[in-house]
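Supplementary notes (optional reading)

For those who missed the lab, this is the record we used. Protein: Peptidase M14 domain-containing protein. Length: 267 residues.
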Amino acid sequence: MNVYQDIEAFYREFRGEKRIIGKSAEGRDLFALFIGTHARPVGIATYAMHAREWVTAYLAMQHVRRGLVTGGVWVVPLVNPDGALLVQEGARAAKQGERLCALCGGDFSLWKANARGVDLNVNWDARWGTGVQNVRFPSPANFIGPAPFSEPETRALRDFTLQVRPDFTLSYHTKGEVIYWHFHQPPLRFKRDRRLAGVLTRVTGYPLAEAKGSAGGYKDWCVEKLKIPAFTVEAGRDDLSHPLGLCSLPDILQKNLDVLVTLTREF
């Protein structure tokens, strides 16, 4: 089974509150599962927005199994199913597989984008198009898209986030074992967000970092537009090569399993 089939089966078997928040560019379901209660704080945790980082979807399932003590979290385990399958299965996983092969020489191992060659984590309306690594043509990575929210995956997550109105968001990526939290906050929100980032550091052991020259991400949009704390956690050791496989999961779990429990408790 591939990662999409694993998440789909997990979703079917989950007995709690759940919903399909939208469809990918190729029509695959985007799943969300709720853990905890609707007493505040309520957060959103996303995983596998970048195709080659599909291993984080398995962390998502463990976070759901772990549950919460306080508050609630909507877990969106596989934001980019089309891209994840390109990494796992190659061009045959996409309707336009041959066209996409031309963008990467047929090697999808480093692919980050969706099935349209758009990097979903630079497609958000938060200083969109100002990132130093942004490109303006379909690519395995860093293509900002023709406009903010041009992609069905980012539109679905945007609309879901606006519906939930979360108190915080958490985005899991790989790799590097660092935490990004800053995006031009004014002093009062800077202090609030820095405190919560410190909670994540204490749980994971990952240091805080500043994403210099980065813009247009989900975290950035949540900080700038919703004015809430938002964090990107880069799980997995930096000496590992993309794409991280399931062999990297035990170490990731050891450092990250209690993140949602602790963040909701100490919010």
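If you only remember one thing from this example: The first helix runs from residue 3 to 13.
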